[in-house]
Amino acid sequence: MDPLLSVDTVTLQYQTTDHLITATWRVSFNVVEGDRFVLLGPSGCGKSSLLKAVGGFIDPVEGQIRLKHREIKKPGPDRMMVFQEFDQLLGWKTVAENVAYPMKVSRRFQKAEIPDRVARGLATIGLERFADAYPHMLSGGMKQRVAIARALAMEPELLLMDEPFAALDALTRRAMQAEVLRLWEQTGVTMLFVTHSIEEALIIGSRILVLSPHPGQVRAELDASDLGFSDVGSRRFAELHQTIESMLFERQEATT
């Protein structure tokens, strides 16, 4: 299939007070429409930096990132991001107002159609009863569901998710993983998902790009499209988990 997103030999760097840090080194991968594509690796491997570069917030020092063959040079409503932090919602706006906000700012939709889009978005995540609530009234999981609804309401080409469940407790995290899969089945949105959890990558991802520790380089791209919640205890799940773990462990040994 013709790729929706193409990341071609991308090197990312950033400057600290004392050093120039190379976050990734010549990383390449393609994401096709409908993918649940996961960037997996340890902390510091540049996976969040890659996501921000796809979002248009960081410019590569080498290589190109293209969406539908157009080079990404800045943020845009065709790429919506969900972050890890709960404070990504505007605290002085209601749930409904938070979902509506990007639509109003981008002027991508007619003003008259926004309330209906907000209502449908909240119904999709089961929070229509909380339309008039404020973020401080919501649990962590509910806040993340609102953030996802806000992103999906923009009808993006690509949904970018940067470890969105890392701060949640184990039970809520598992529930949110199931919610994301349900929303994907319902909407078919193409996802680029960052995590450092091998189990989460195998549950969420249809394809998994394994990155080495700093600086991030491609170790392997794996197909996990046959796995889901019902396969967590299966031999196939365990074998793939062990394969990924071995890749990361071998690389860590080599760099110590």
UniProtKB/TrEMBL annotation:
<dbReference type="GO" id="GO:0016887">
    <property type="term" value="F:ATP hydrolysis activity"/>
</dbReference>
<dbReference type="GO" id="GO:0005524">
    <property type="term" value="F:ATP binding"/>
</dbReference>
<keyword id="KW-0547">Nucleotide-binding</keyword>
<dbReference type="InterPro" id="IPR003439">
    <property type="entry name" value="ABC_transporter-like_ATP-bd"/>
</dbReference>
<comment type="function">
    <text>Involved in beta-(1--&gt;2)glucan export. Transmembrane domains (TMD) form a pore in the inner membrane and the ATP-binding domain (NBD) is responsible for energy generation.</text>
</comment>
<dbReference type="InterPro" id="IPR050166">
    <property type="entry name" value="ABC_transporter_ATP-bind"/>
</dbReference>
<keyword id="KW-0067">ATP-binding</keyword>
<dbReference type="InterPro" id="IPR027417">
    <property type="entry name" value="P-loop_NTPase"/>
</dbReference>
<dbReference type="InterPro" id="IPR017871">
    <property type="entry name" value="ABC_transporter-like_CS"/>
</dbReference>
<dbReference type="InterPro" id="IPR003593">
    <property type="entry name" value="AAA+_ATPase"/>
</dbReference>
<protein>
    <submittedName>
        <fullName>NitT/TauT family transport system ATP-binding protein</fullName>
    </submittedName>
</protein>
<dbReference type="Pfam" id="PF00005">
    <property type="entry name" value="ABC_tran"/>
</dbReference>
<keyword id="KW-0813">Transport</keyword>
<feature type="domain" description="ABC transporter">
    <location>
        <begin position="5"/>
        <end position="240"/>
    </location>
</feature>
<comment type="similarity">
    <text>Belongs to the ABC transporter superfamily.</text>
</comment>
